Amino acid sequence: MKLYIKNSIYMKHNTILLFLSFCFASQFIFAQNRNYNEPRTNVPLDSIRLSDPAILADHNTNMYYMTGTGGMLWKSKDLKYWDGPYQVVEHDKNSWMGEKPMIWAAELHKYNDKYYYFATFTNKEVMVDTINGKALERRASHVLVSDKPDGPYVPMEDETYLPAGMLTLDGTFWVDKDGKPYMIYCHEWLQNNNGTMEKIELKPDLSSSVGKGKILFRASDSPWSREEIDGKTGPNKVTDGPYLFRTGTGRLGMIWTSWVYNVYTQGVVYSESGTLDGPWIQEHDPITPPDFGHGMLFQTLDGKWLMSVHSHREENGRYIRIPCLFNIDLSGDKLIIEDRYIP
Predict the structure, then answer these.
(1) Cα separation of 280 and 277, whole Å?
(2) Which residues of 9-37 are buried (b: 16+ CB within 10 A; e: fewer)?
(3) DSSP assignment, residue 206?
(4) For the whole model, what pTM was predicted?
(5) How many Cβ atoms sit within 10 Å of the Cβ of residue 329?
(6) Helix, strand and coil percent figures for the chain, each rounded to 5
């Protein structure tokens, strides 16, 4: 997830200022992660500054691998101490991504004996749309592949999984009841003014997309997200950070993130059909404490379910984001967030 500016700008409804603030915040996260020039060892989890932390527990290597915004990777044997960050992406510099793309919200997924890197790439040199007189950079969810969890991750067959003129982000992976693999992603609210959550089918080897995307729900469907514009309160425009799961009873759910005024917040939505086609019914209240979001779920190497999120706060005009873990309960019909997990 990128750093969407706070609600004072929403209330002014100044589109140009909103976009400029968005770009500044996004560049800050990118620069923040790139400050780690050399890998370090035995770094405590709460000493790492990382947005959108996603953790893969890999039984082949008996290790944990953490990715997120910035395009780097951390490794750990116990979730408590980490080595890194390591560069693991080998993108095609001659492709639409350009020489030095910004990389957001990377996730690792093991599928059919290979490892896949789902991430958002932004090329600041290429403009694809103009909204209210402001040019929008090319941004898209994409997939890379590797034979090993720590990469290198390289491009596959398809240079474009989604339409080139469509700003998409935070792609994640899911295999639905039909046995087909899908990417679930957000269509950027900066472009459509009402962010959507969408799905697109992938080829069996995830090397390309199949057909067209389908909308699952819109930001305005949320009963808990809020913003105020010109004195009027309504749903927030942001859809962000999808991650899918099944409960102990087989119910299909999705966590996703938006805002409650100026508070970064995560909610949950459930599919009545038990498939990606929904209909998707939003829970009335947020699922995590305020200022935590962009979560994902994983099982530890010994089988315990955890949620990885980042905390979100502003200090001296800068956003600070730190990976955090929560105990969760998936045994029943709903996802239940419990206390903090301290490794």
Answers:
(1) 8
(2) bbbeeeeeebbebbbebbeebbebbeebe
(3) S
(4) 0.90
(5) 13
(6) 10, 50, 40
